[in-house]
Specification:
By secondary structure, the chain is α+β, with helices and mostly antiparallel strands. The protein has a single domain, classed as Ribosomal protein L30/S12 (60s Ribosomal Protein L30, Chain: A), CATH 3.30.1330. It has 4 helices and 5 strands, in the order H-E-E-H-E-H-E-H-E.
Length: 100
């Protein structure tokens, strides 16, 4: 059964309120939360945290591909309400790495 974060991420994807990829996320102006994959390399994670200091970053303990059913190591949510719901529903499958 999908958890609330998985449901909100898939809603955001269907509503075109997401940006995929470690390289694309820094250029997005209105991102409210970033969900990263546990298989993201250490250097990519450092880059993601360095370039997005004002945005909360959540690490998924499951591979992100199984959560969003798409490829990619990181996804940013551009909708404020969806991002707030994601942040409120962090469970054992996710870890808040940076509060932004």
């Amino acid at each position: 059964m999908p958890d609330k974060i998985q449901t909100m991420l898939n809603f955001a994807i269907r509503a075109s309120k997401t940006v995929f990829g470690v390289d694309n996320i820094p250029s997005c102006k209105n991102k409210h939360v970033i969900v990263a994959c546990s298989t993201l390399s250490e250097n990519s994670l450092k880059q993601l945290l360095r370039e997005n200091k004002n945005t909360p970053v959540i690490m998924s303990k499951r591979p992100l591909e199984t959560v969003i059913h798409r490829g990619g190591k990181a996804v940013a949510v551009k909708d404020r309400n969806m991002a707030q719901e994601i942040l409120k529903n962090i469970n054992d499958d996710y870890e808040l790495i940076s509060e932004g």
